[in-house]
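re the bet — no i am not wrong, look at it urself. input seq straight from the record:
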Amino acid sequence: MRQVNASSTPHPRRGLLVACLLVIALVVTVVVWRVREGDDGRQVATGPAGAAFYEVSPQQLATDRHGTLIWSRRVVDGPTIGGTTHLVMYRSMSAKGEPVAVSGVVSIPSGEPPEGGWPVISWGHGTTGMADDCAPSRSLVDQQTGIYTASMDQTTTDLVGDGYAVVRTDYEGLGTPGPHPYLMGQSAGASMTDIVLAAHELSPDLSPRWVAMGHSQGGQAALFTSRFTDAYAPGLDLAGIVALAPPSQLGVVVEMAGGQAPAGTTEEEQAAATDSASGAGFLGPLVVAAARVTGVDVKDVVTPAGQRLLPQLEDRCIAELFREDSFGGMRLEDFLREDADLSRIRRTVGTNDAAELHPHAPVLIVHGTKDTTVPPLLSDRLSEQYEQQGADVEYVRVSGADHISVLEASRPRVQEWVSAAFVEAG
């Protein structure tokens, strides 16, 4: 060891070096404190406050596999009663199969967990839009909660009160940079699965058993979690899937948009598809998303009038997109070019269609008979397709319920089914 003469006069530069080292040591101490957030002492990075929470560097994505936590931040005024809520940023897989950062929310009940840990419900939200500000978790940052987000908050509160840990993904491209691949079920299913893996890094009190549950777009996403089991999510046990008013038969809808009725479709199915494809409100963003994922130039399929609306996808949410000065005021025939070649887009949409799935987990499909947003005939057909495959599927039509009221109207049956699914999985 080198000895230092205490009586010698310190060199000015040496004194400066010591001061710098002290500052560095102080900074390191602060950083180490900031990453110790895990309930069991594991290191979990604390994300920045505000909108900066959603900004992730490419280097952070390249360091680990899907389903790992990038950072989190505890929310003081979260959407739960009797639990704790965290904003989370985690790694997932994009619609193109590439690493992507996805944001979401994790809510965990208070108190002692049951033996085996809190059972987990991964909730998939319905269509909110394609802009970053439409991400449901953003309401925890800017304190602006819409009617639909408020209803999801209440659903989360009820589920946490029932003793479930609830995780809610924003999906790829909502909140975070990059386009949102609207109704691309492959991406959404990965997001719903990976947030469950990430939540287990946040808390050791979670059970490996989980149920995927979603409404509308989220119902389709929940069904796609059936593709992300076994080796993709080691250690997790998907106990069941609940799909409330899920869109399906999307391949048929796009075929109809192209002026063709696929062979084998009934007149009722064609009528439902025609009704779904009559306006550009939902189908316009779907075609745009599928074109981006496929690598098709949007200008090759969308008219100049439709192209003028595209910037609105990045700054308007669902209510504004359905206004007369937006997609809601445009007919599909005025949005799509007459000479558009939709063949590649149809294949991409078909790959992301719930009708093409072969779920191995038990499935509950719920649809309101008065739903004019997603025609119930689509779920009629979907349940038949799953039954023909030999899937374990139950289909409940809720008399008099529309697209939104089906959430509350079906709640008793959904609660009963979910409880039974967890028991059977245990």
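see?? The chain is about 40% helix and 15% strand. told u. also Residues 251-350 form one domain. so pay up
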